[in-house]
Amino acid sequence: RLANAATPLWRLLYQEQLQVKYESQRKILQTLTSRLEELGIDAQKPDGLCCPLQPVVPSPIINGYRNKSTFSVNRGPDGNPKTVGLYVGTGRARNIVCVRADRMENIPSKHKQVAQCYEEFIRCSPLDPCILFHEGGHWRELVVRTTSCGHTMAIITFHPQELSQEALVTQKALLKEFFTCGPGTVCALTSLYFQESTMTRCSHEQSPFQLLHGEPHIFEEMLGLKFRISPDAFFQVNTGGAEVLYQAVGELSQASGDTVLLDICCGTGEQQLCTIGLSLAHQVSKIIGIEVVEKAIEDARWNAAFNGISNCEFHSGKAEAVLPQLLSSWEDTRPLVAVVNPSRAGLHYRVVRAIRNCRSIRRLLYISCKPEGEAMRNFLELCCPPDPGKKLAGEPFAPTLAIPFDMFPHTVHCELVLLFTR
């Protein structure tokens, strides 16, 4: 049941999975085409779409490709409340159970091993799991991150409830002992982090990640660069797939030695590392990265310096505040290309407006993990006729090419790269 819920395409041959994804992306483009037609834009090309749609680019790795997995703690099918795994069922039907991830094709064996060890630890602990915050309990989710360099980071979330500082120190010591001297040593963790959290999700600022053992960072290599990864850093979950995606973005941007590339990371809550910008820095004159989380800027600057990249400048703050300010006074005559990779919430309207109203941007690459959602609104705002009421004065963009990338084999999801030009 778990495999069917989380990875519904797992039974299909990989070529069949790609075909399913191609058809779903085609439907999304058909929707965009008809929405553009409603705006009075003659968008339809001979094949009925607003721009050519290329076949789905396959993932270089099909099984065990995830470099990050999040495991919950809840009741298992046998009723044991200390089961570590993934949810099946819905809250509405009240049939949620937590099922071990043993048979999940997309999760690597190392992640499953750490989850199994964490389950063993909490089952021996006298403390209860925290299933509903108001009902008490302590042990919460586990995040496991691995890299192609062989590093493993585990982050354990714990609800302190009314525990004293002394009791918390004891629990942290027991956890550390289990993973460094006890049965958990088989996991060979590079980093073990602990976070006391009274909310569903906490940032480092709200509740610091406490390093119990090992190195503060793990490292990933991609496209000849080395990236430092903090506990809450955003990194594409499929490293091999990300390499293919970023190489294609480099080609599609047509960025040359005199190009300035805008790498706009928008509001994921997790800190992004400006990985796209850094990976393309060698082929452009300058990279300008915008990121909301200050710590991500720290990491991005460190990564740039470590890799000997000196043509980057990073701005910290919300893109909707930083970008309009940056572009309103833009007088640089060099070609300006923008790459946006927003969360599912899409781009803030002020970001779209700033891009649209900046004459220097003739080429925009929009990378979307959910193009049928809020991103669709952005596409229409970028392409609609000038609208003084909405302060969209700039010349409209037009969709020029669409390329889907399969970053998530066995699931129905993929990343769509849409090239807009004007």
Description:
With 422 residues, the chain is an alpha/beta fold. The chain folds into two domains: 14-60 and 238-421, Rossmann fold, CATH 3.40.50; 68-215, OB fold (Dihydrolipoamide Acetyltransferase, E2P). The chain contains ten helices and 18 strands. The strands form four sheets. Strands 3-2-1-4-5-6-7 form a seven-stranded mixed sheet. A seven-stranded mixed sheet has the order 14-13-11-15-16-18-17, sandwiched between helices. A two-stranded antiparallel sheet has the order 8-9. A hairpin with a 2-residue loop joins β8 and β9. α8 runs parallel beside α9 (349-356). This is tRNA (uracil(54)-C(5))-methyltransferase.
Instruction: Look at the structure and name the CATH superfamily of the largest domain.
Output: Vaccinia Virus protein VP39
- Kindly report the spatial arrangement of strands forming the biggest sheet: 3-2-1-4-5-6-7
Question: What is the chain-wise order of helices and strands?
Answer: HHEEEHEEHEEEEEHEEHEHEHEHEHEE
Mean pLDDT: 91
Shape: globular
Cα-atom radius of gyration: 23 Å
* Binned strand content: 15-25%
Q: What is the CATH class of the largest domain? A: Alpha Beta
Helical proportion, percent range: 25-40%
Count of separate DSSP helical elements:
10
Count of discrete structural domains: 2
- Enumerate the spans where pLDDT stays under 50 for 5 or more consecutive residues: 267-271
Question: Within the CATH hierarchy, at the fold level, what is the topology of the largest domain?
Answer: Rossmann fold
Q: Could you tell me how far the N terminus lies from the C terminus, measured between alpha carbons in angstroms?
A: 47 Å
Give the number of DSSP strands: 18
Task: Report the biggest beta sheet as strand number plus sense, adding barrel if it closes.
Answer: 7 strands, mixed
> Structural class of the secondary structure composition?
alpha/beta
Q: What is the name of the CATH architecture of the largest domain? A: 3-Layer(aba) Sandwich
| Multimeric status of the protein | single chain
InterPro entries: Methyltranfer_dom, SAM-dependent_MTases_sf, TRM2_met, TRM2B_chor, U5_MeTrfase_fam
GO biological process, one term: methylation
Binding site for S-adenosyl-L-methionine: 236, 291, 341
Enzyme class: transferase
